[in-house]
Amino acid sequence: MALKKLTLPENVCIAEYVWLDGFYKLRSKARTLDEVPNSPDDLPEWNYDGSSTGQAPGTDSEVILRPQAIYKDPFRGGPHILVMCDTYNPQGLPLMTNQRHDCAIVMQKGKDLLPWFGCEQEYFLIDNATGRPLGFPAEGYPAPQGPYYCGAGAGKIFGRDVAEEHYIACLYAGIKMSGINAEVAPGQWEFQIGPAVGMEEGDMMWMARYILERVTENYEMTVSYDAKPEKGKLPLEQIQPQD
């Protein structure tokens, strides 16, 4: 895209604020900063219309975004950033969907223990044209599991371009993605994040999901984290601790 080759004025930084809506889906919007922040504390709070995200009534719709973690923006490149935020009402109280707030309190109490976490995220890539997982036939079901897990080659692996682009984008962003692999069904993939300390793990997992959904915009696909996106004998999809 030609716009990506344009040079912006010095000291301009675009910050994409990312948050969870009332349905635990990812939302984002961008703002222009006149300097590059060194930490989330350097970033201003922002607001949005919570009545459009299932988080506030139309009569009192303002929701406050508080920056919590910064990542390099793999879509715009440097010096631009992605900002993981959590959500509060105008009185400063966390929204019901802001489970990060309570988790941060617990992690602060145990910070001297340096708790390590590692999670795997499985997902299906859904073909927008068919509404079915990538690699599924127009009717019926694919061959039973066996050749797909960690496989290679046409007819066994579907969506590698997406998985690879997501992998590289996350590493560029500064997310501690430790690996990826094809899973046990066509169009099913997995990525691993960690080990990460305390709040890092959750923030990185959500930002990795955001980056994945942004990547699929260019491929006419969507991401499904559903346990069974199709009826029938398909593997369960889940987040699970790493071995």
Keywords, please?
243 residues; alpha+beta; Creatine Kinase, Chain A, domain 2; 5-stranded mixed sheet; 11 strands; ATP-binding; cytoplasm
Describe this structure in words.
Keywords: ATP-binding, Cytoplasm, Ligase, Nucleotide-binding. InterPro entries: Gln_synt_N, Gln_synt_N_sf, Gln_synth/guanido_kin_cat_dom, Gln_synth_cat_dom, Gln_synth_N_conserv_site, Glutamine_Synthetase. This is glutamine synthetase. GO terms for molecular function: ATP binding; glutamine synthetase activity. By secondary structure, this protein is an alpha+beta fold. It has two domains: 2-109, Ubiquitin-like (UB roll); 114-241, Glutamine synthetase/guanido kinase, catalytic domain (Creatine Kinase, Chain A, domain 2, 2-Layer Sandwich). It is 18% helix and 31% strand. The chain is built from three helices and eleven strands; from the N terminus they run βββββαββαββαββ. It has helices at residues 99-109, 160-173, 199-216, and strands at residues 13-20, 26-33, 46-49, 62-72, 81-88, 116-127, 132-133, 177-182, 188-197, 221-224, 239-241. The strands form two sheets. Strands 6, 7, 8, 9, 10 and 11 form a six-stranded antiparallel β-sheet that branches. A hairpin with a 4-residue loop joins strand 6 and strand 7 (132-133). Helix 2 (160-173) crosses helix 3 (199-216). The longest helix has 18 residues, at 199-216. The chain is globular, with a radius of gyration of 19 Å. The mean pLDDT is 93.
